[in-house]
Amino acid sequence: MPKFYFHVRTAFTFHRDLEGSVLATMDMARQQAVAAAREILSHSVARGQTIDGRSFEIVNEDGVILEIISFMSAIRRG
């Protein structure tokens, strides 16, 4: 099964996911990113922090960016 990495990019920082997650499909990786973004957003809103400009870069084992999911788009996804 493929391994996906979920790097977090903000307007000023970049946090590399060094562990990654083994998941069966890209759709599962996308679902995991959306769920994590929602959780992070809920904590940020509760603390009164800015929530704009954050995104997950879903990357494969070769370092290729497969998809970028903004945290704000996670709110609107079904």
Write the layout of secondary structure elements.
Layout: E1 3-9, E2 14-15, E3 21-22, H1 26-46, E4 55-59, E5 65-70, H2 71-76
Antiparallel strand pairs: 1-2, 1-3, 1-4, 4-5
What would you note in describing this structure?
The protein starts with a strand and ends with a helix. Helix content is 35%, strand content 28%. Strands 1, 2, 3, 4 and 5 form a 5-stranded antiparallel beta sheet that branches. A hairpin with a 5-residue loop joins strand 4 and strand 5 (65-70). The protein has helices spanning 26-46, 71-76, and strands at 3-9, 14-15, 21-22, 55-59, 65-70. The chain has one domain (3-76). InterPro entries: DUF6894.
Task: Give a brief description.
With 78 residues, the protein is of the alpha+beta class.
Give me the Rg, rounded: 12 Å
What's the end-to-end separation, in Å?
Answer: 26 Å
Helix and strand succession?
Answer: EEEHEEH
Q: Can you give the mean pLDDT?
A: 91
**Strand segment tally:** 5
What proportion of the residues form beta strands (DSSP E)?
Answer: 25-35%
Helical/strand content category: alpha+beta
What is the domain total for the residues? 1
Coarse morphology: globular
User: Uncertain runs with pLDDT below 50, 5 residues or more?
Assistant: none
Major sheet: 5 strands, antiparallel
Tally of contiguous helical segments? 2
Query: What share of the residues lie within helices?
Result: 25-40%
Domain DUF6894: 4-70
Pfam families: DUF6894
Organism: Shinella granuli
Protein name: DUF6894 domain-containing protein
